[in-house]
Design a protein that fits this description.
Layout: E1 3-8, E2 16-19, H1 21-27, E3 31-33, H2 35-40, E4 48-55, E5 61-69
Length: about 80
């Protein structure tokens, strides 16, 4: 993806925002993530992702599918 950021502010409707300084600098606001993309990419609050952005109908930056989740190599894959 063109950008990297962290999924923040997941809303009740399943949509969220991605905190990314580059997008915020260019567009003046955080990138929006539609609930369909959240679901398709299995995203959750706190996930670090690489993504591309398009401008949505309201003129805001929006994350395009697909996006790529970073995996923490230090995480225990067995969950314990």
């Amino acid at each position: 993806g063109d950008f990297e950021g962290v999924v923040t502010r997941v809303l009740a409707n399943g949509c969220a925002f991605v905190e990314c300084p580059e997008v915020k600098e260019q567009a003046g606001k955080d990138a929006y993530v539609h609930s369909a993309v959240m679901e398709q990419c299995s995203l959750a609050e706190g996930d670090r992702i690489a993504f591309m952005v398009h401008v949505n109908s309201s003129g805001s930056p929006q994350v395009s599918a697909p996006c790529w989740k970073f995996v923490d190599d230090k995480a225990d894959s067995w969950g314990g």
